[in-house]
Design a protein that fits this description.
Blueprint lengths: L1 E6 L5 H9 L3 E6 L4 E3 L4 E3 L2 H8 L4 E2 L7 H9 L4 E5 L7 H4 L6 E5 L7 E2 L2 H7 L4 E8 L9 E8 L6 H24 L15 E2 L15 H10 L6 E5 L2 E11 L10 E3 L7 E4 L4 E9 L5 E2 H7 L11
Parallel strand pairs: 1-2, 1-6, 2-5, 6-7, 8-11
Antiparallel strand pairs: 3-4, 7-9, 9-10, 12-13, 13-16, 14-15, 15-16, 16-17
Length: 312
């Protein structure tokens, strides 16, 4: 059985390595082209490319899989099945038609909920008690294909997008092996999705992280978790960006202006910010260009922070 794997970020690596470790015949790994990054603008390879090279697998990095040249090269590999996990490019119909056993996609939500580009952040923003992974057959319309297997895990109050994605990547790797084995043995009947229960989520933008203090503390707390590690939830103080990376929700704040920074009575240095409903207790904070620190340490170093009013 000849398999082509398509993926790019770190959370796709466990799925690739699960296939390799279990002896599947990976004939090629497709990943995004190397990109310049950092102050020095040096070229950075994707996590999947780095893992593939470690395992001695051939890596293909087309600028676009839609080009005639890229499609012809892929067809020449004669894959029986293509596995996709966050590849990062929209796949054309011509590509989906190449493998006789179709294309399988590992998606980090319980489909049809949270179709689209940012399902993990969407689960946190939506206050989901559970989320999970679905392995589906790929159709041209995004994330609408029938589901071969799904597995759920709880979303804990301490989870952010980084930690939850890491857990889902491990679950997804094991689920992929289970689904692929069953699919290739004709032991699985694909289950159509209920489109009436679906929702789509787009790419997270940097501007999504800016905090509106008019919102309830509960909503802001979810955003702090959903937008960590990128783009981070941020506000501004003294003309500089101030990121909040960890927080909690407290009652109170009525009669005060939204965005007011207050000292909390529970222990020395505890910091709260008044919101449209309740108080956001700030645990960790980062001033632009500085290291992350506790809010207590920050307020000790910035004596006029308590009593400030942050913009909404």
């Amino acid at each position: 059985m000849r398999i082509v794997f398509m993926g790019s970020p770190q959370f796709a690596v466990p799925s690739l390595e699960q296939l390799v470790i279990n002896g599947y015949n990976i004939i090629a790994v497709y990943s995004q082209p190397d990109r310049p990054s950092g102050r020095g603008r040096g070229m950075t390879v994707s996590a999947v490319k780095a893992a593939a090279l470690k395992w001695g697998l051939p890596v293909i990095q087309p600028e676009s899989v839609r080009s005639a040249e890229a499609l012809a090269q892929l067809a020449d590999f004669k894959p029986d099945v293509i596995i996709i996990c966050a590849f990062g490019q929209i796949l054309p119909r011509a590509l989906l038609d190449i493998p006789p056993r179709q294309c399988l996609n590992v998606h980090f939500s319980l489909l049809p909920r949270h179709r689209g580009a940012s399902p993990v952040a969407a689960a946190i923003l939506g206050g989901d008690v559970f989320t999970g992974v679905s392995v589906q057959l790929v159709r041209y319309k995004l994330d609408t294909g029938p589901v071969l297997a799904a597995a759920s895990i709880p979303v804990f109050p301490t989870d952010n997008t980084g930690s939850l994605t890491e857990k889902l990547s491990i679950v997804g790797a094991h689920l992929l092996q289970e689904a692929l084995t069953g699919w290739l043995r004709d032991e699985i009947t694909p289950q159509p999705q209920d489109d009436s229960q679906s929702d789509y989520v787009g790419q997270v933008k940097k501007s999504d992280g800016e905090i509106n203090w008019q919102l309830p503390a509960e909503d802001i707390w979810r955003r702090v978790r959903a937008y960590y590690p990128w783009p981070g939830c941020y506000t501004h103080w003294k003309g500089r960006q101030l990121k909040i990376s960890e927080a909690a929700v407290m009652p109170g704040g009525s009669g005060r202006e939204c965005g007011a920074v207050i000292a909390l009575p529970e222990n020395e240095g505890a910091v709260g910010i008044v919101t449209g409903e309740g108080i956001l207790k700030v645990l960790n904070i980062q001033y632009a260009g500085k290291k992350t620190m506790t809010a207590a340490a920050f307020s000790r170093g910035q004596r006029d922070f308590i009593g400030a009013r942050l913009p909404s």
